Amino acid sequence: MGSRFEGSGVLVTGGAAGMGRAIAAAFLGEGAKVVIADIDEERVGKTAEELGSGGEVSSLGVDVTSEEQVGEMIRRGDEALGGIDVLVNNAGVITMDKVTDVSEKDWDFVMDVNAKGVFLCVKAVIPGMLERGGGRIVNIASQAGKRGYKLFAHYCASKAAVIVFSKGVALEVAPTIRINCVCPGIVNTEMMDREYVWEEEMTGETQAAIKERWMAGIPMGRFQEPEHIARVAMFLASEDSSEMTGQAINVTGGMVME
Length: 258
Ligand SMILES: NC(=O)c1ccc[n+]([C@@H]2O[C@H](COP(=O)([O-])OP(=O)(O)OC[C@H]3O[C@@H](n4cnc5c(N)ncnc54)[C@H](O)[C@@H]3O)[C@@H](O)[C@H]2O)c1
Known about the structure:
Blueprint: E1 9-13, H1 18-29, E2 33-38, H2 41-51, E3 57-61, H3 67-81, E4 86-89, H4 104-132, E5 135-140, H5 153-173, E6 177-184, H6 190-203, H7 207-216, H8 226-237, E7 248-251
Parallel strand pairs: 1-2, 1-4, 2-3, 4-5, 5-6, 6-7
Bound molecules: nicotinamide-adenine-dinucleotide.
The site of nicotinamide-adenine-dinucleotide has 30 residues, from helix 1, helix 4 and helix 6.
């Protein structure tokens, strides 16, 4: 394994579990100093301890929907890392319902964490990156932000917002800062475990049948692992992608090609 990020400071939101944890581990493996932030303060602390033997990592509690807390996260992250070179906006949530049953509260919850959360973190990190003369932002959006899916149209909307927001910001901050999205497909994390349970409850289709149906649409014939997403996040944060900004890259085993 190379060490493309030796000496770099990396902040990952939603880093307690799933993709965020894998992204943090991958950056640590290539020499970065990492801060993981999550609304589940206890779990993110434990995750930092577990990842600790792999390098320099610390944790913070944050709710990305609060401008005040995000400001504090960026301030403390900056301090711990000696400057944030890479911000990975990974924190996200999903709920599932027919659009006619989605409550205003659920719409606001999903839009607040997934879309407003990214806005607040991007807004807070940009001034420091501009001052230091560089930075890379990687947003974990979703292929669901490019396609519509029944039972989570509101989630699709929140991820589409992230993709287009990133393009607008890319124009504002180029060439000093690059900002790109990863659009995962179906990744084996607790989020998908919850999704299968809800879908089974709502449709009566068994979890095995749901998985089989999803799998049939994936040319590579497998769901993705958090580590697959981490590798592409690292690519977008590295010099290997120096000519890319405002992009939204699918990592779906070929399920989505647009
Ligand atoms: N799992 C998938 O198949 C899939 C596919 C496409 C996109 N995504 C996206 O990838 C990202 C990571 O998802 P995951 O599958 O690892 O999910 P996960 O539920 O396993 O992890 C998400 C993490 O975000 C944290 N979080 C939630 N709300 C927060 C808030 N307000 N402030 C700070 N942290 C918060 C959670 O505590 C959790 O640790 C999300 O943005 C998700 O929408 C997931």
